[in-house]
Design brief:
It comes from Nonomuraea rubra. Keywords: Acyltransferase, Transferase. This is Isopenicillin-N N-acyltransferase-like protein. The protein is an alpha+beta fold. Strand 4 and strand 5 form a beta hairpin. The protein has 13 helices and 14 strands. The strands form two sheets. An eight-stranded mixed beta sheet has the order 1-4-5-6-7-8-9-10, covered by helices on one side. It has a six-stranded antiparallel beta sheet with strand order 11-2-3-12-13-14. The protein is globular, with a radius of gyration of 18 Å. 36% of the residues lie in helices and 23% in strands. The protein has two domains: 94 residues, Arc Repressor Mutant, subunit A (Orthogonal Bundle); 247 residues, 4-Layer Sandwich (Penicillin V Acylase, Chain A), CATH 3.60.60.10.
């Protein structure tokens, strides 16, 4: 049980996108269909979704023209219209515009030991009917930097690591300032951080340069530091590790100013339970072995914090969640280590190194 992989041979953005779209044509079409079903279940009309996808492309073209070219290439390779690939990349923005709520979501742990590389792990929860959306994608830039990302078919990036010694984890947030006026998709911010940043400070600057319409947190990790970059239309805040080198994040804002507009915690209070579970288990999350860190994450509701999620099949698709992947960053090697499924299924043999 592993995720499909693809390694690009092209460095020109449009050519790289076309190659990616051609190779993953069926998966991209299936991902688009899955999101179309999700948006319809949440009450969004097809014409409105198309308009949001087109606005996302406009925002991307203004902020990062090469990424707009890559999206156009993916569309050409996959036999889709550019706005359709725009919809896939802007799914967080569309869900914020719809104001969809639910009870799943992700948990991230980063520990910076006094000696040795960062020790990270996160669960990635999403709707169970989209469990086949993820792919592992490797591409090289003209500069020679290699990026490896766990993403969804047709999406330019999500969780990832680079040979420049930087990696990112990714969690969704919700804020009162989220708006239907589609801005730069947050997944594209993660992509530019992976492509361009070599430090936490450079990553924060990139995040602050984008006009966004939805909220997220991108936890950036290097060999010497880390920060959870909380992004919302109301502003951007960088949360550093504590004095013990521990940085934990779930799906609520930690910055005092941004927390005043918190949405997730009022609608999904389980995020606080998950944070308490992480805080109570820092020793296990600090371990050198990824398998042990993942098992430390393990907790099921209702007995404990729902860090490892399983779908309730009695619910409609927009209210069903599962832990699709468990992921750690190996910064020294510039590699991802990925387990397909939640911590309750982890063994030493289930890790995919990419």
């Amino acid at each position: 049980m592993t995720f499909p992989t693809f390694t690009s041979s092209q460095t020109d953005p449009r050519a790289r996108g076309k190659e990616f779209g051609t190779h993953l044509r069926k998966r991209i079409a299936a991902n688009l269909a899955g999101y179309t079903d999700l948006f319809r279940a949440a009450g969004a009309g097809d014409a409105q979704v198309r308009a949001w996808g087109e606005r996302a492309l406009d925002a991307c073209a203004a902020w990062a023209p090469p990424l707009a070219e890559e999206i156009a290439g993916i569309a050409a390779g996959a036999g889709l219209e550019p706005w359709q690939v725009g919809v896939i990349n802007a799914r967080t923005e569309i869900l914020a515009a719809i104001d969809m709520v639910g009870h799943g979501e992700c948990s991230t742990s980063v520990v910076l030991p006094q000696d040795g590389p960062p020790r990270t792990v996160q669960t990635w929860d999403w709707h169970d009917h989209l469990r086949d959306a993820p792919v592992l994608w490797e591409y090289e830039q003209d500069s020679g930097r290699v990026v490896r990302t766990f993403t969804e078919a047709g999406t330019l990036a999500k969780i990832g690591v680079t040979t420049a010694g930087l990696g990112v984890h990714f969690n969704i947030l919700r804020h009162d300032s989220d708006t239907p006026e589609t801005g730069v998709p947050v997944h594209l911010i993660a992509r530019r951080i992976l492509d361009e940043a070599s430090s936490v400070e450079e990553a924060v600057d990139l995040a602050r340069s984008a006009r966004v319409s939805a909220s997220t947190v991108i936890t950036v990790v290097t060999g010497t530091g880390a920060a959870s970059i909380e992004i919302s239309p109301a502003g951007v805040a960088a949360i550093p590790p504590g004095p013990d080198g521990v940085l934990l994040h779930c799906n609520h804002f930690l910055d005092a100013g941004l927390a005043a507009g918190e949405r997730h915690a009022t609608e999904r209070p389980g995020t606080y339970d998950r944070m308490r579970h992480l805080e109570d288990n820092v020793e296990g999350l600090s371990g050198a072995e990824l398998n042990g860190r993942a098992l430390t994450m393990l907790s099921h509701a209702p007995e404990g914090a729902p860090v490892c999620a399983h779908p309730d099949l009695t619910q409609p698709i927009n209210q069903r969640w599962e832990t699709v992947a468990t992921i750690g960053l190996d910064l020294p090697a510039g590699r991802l280590r990925v387990h397909r499924g939640g911590p309750c299924q982890v063994t030493e043999a289930t890790w995919q190194t990419f």
